[in-house]
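Request: Give me one sample?
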Amino acid sequence: MGPDYHGPPAVEAPAAQFKSGDPADPAAEADNAPWWSVFHDPLLDELEAEAVAANLDIQVAVARIGESQAQARAAAADLYPTLQAEPKYVRERSSNTEPLQLGQLVGANSLGLGSSGSSTILETQELSRTYNVFSLPVDLNWEVDLFGSVRRGAKAARETSQSYESDLQNVRLSTTANVASDYFSLGALDAELEVLERTLSTRRDSLQIAQERLEAGLTSELDVIRAGREIASAEANLFSVQRARAQMENALALLLGRAASNFRVRRLTLTALPPRVPAGTPSRLLARRPDVASAERLLAAANERIGVAKAAFLPSLSLTGEAGFESAELSEVFHRQSSLWQFGPSLTVPIFQGGRNRANLQNAKAAYAEQLAHYRQQVLVAFQDVENALVDLRTLAGQYDAEQRAAAADRRALQLSQDLYAKGNANYLDVLDGQRTLLTDEQAVAELLGQRSQATVQLIKALGGKWK
């Protein structure tokens, strides 16, 4: 009973390639190595391996697979007969005052032993007694799966277990992607720290120049105050970035399954640009994404449960039997005269269930419609993730190049303004403006370098961790 599952429904997808991507470069396809190896960073490789081995979310997902597999085996057990022994011992005393327990002795009147006789013996039989019952039955029960209800339920359980296996792959992919993303965020923050420390050194030099000019009577105390204020501002920014770095380091420790108090990452240097990862074609994307695979397995399981709900409208046939021994004496339990058995089929026909079966069928169909919409949504999310990552990579690359040119111009402008100020040919405000502008652009360059690496990680995650 029920509809047969013929695979996931077709979902509208781009025909040839992603609108924001370039054609796939076969030379850049991944091999069997872990995806993070494309960054060629030994420390990142070490952190990723530790996360795969010790991350607690991954361990939870592994435990869920074991749980679902056990549930699938339990559902499949209903396909087979159940055989169980129920040994039992009872010591019992019967009552003598229950109905029909008193009876007149047969032939008492003919023998002159009735109530009118001069001498009577027992007129009633003594029926109250204490005795033992030793029983050793073996029960057999088997529901014959006439309409496939049990088979479809077992299949639904297996497909649900398979969805948990895909969930494990998705958790592992998300965890490793988060590790890489946090790692590159640390690198970007370290680059900002380097910029701020260099800026502090430059501003201290400017303060010294301002003090020397003040002592020589070439400037006012206002320049010295402004230089000191810029140093304090840079120090405040430095503390802010240090706080952000410490929090990011603690987040990375959690991903590795380690206590934040015992985890530290050395200063990182992000100098290399992220590798190019080809997006490939949309038609191959759905075979890579573990979240799409999980949604498809849940859709198949929901389809099977429609068959289970339909079978509830039809009769069910059960075969039951019992065989064993029963005796009042333990020594006679296994005698031939103590044996007993019974066997027979039973048919259960649903006549009136108060609308329960119809409601269960409607619920199963609604659950299938829900999973179908979830599957289609997951497919569209997959396409969106890839497109967003490709857009980020393209625009961040252009923004990074523009910020580098702006930073180079700022360095030249600051150098000129400092030289002119030292000679008394420029106002100190020109120096301050140059320092602030350079700091802003250099921080932007550091952030963009980290964001480009993070966008590459997000593209790899959107592709399911593979692009071959």
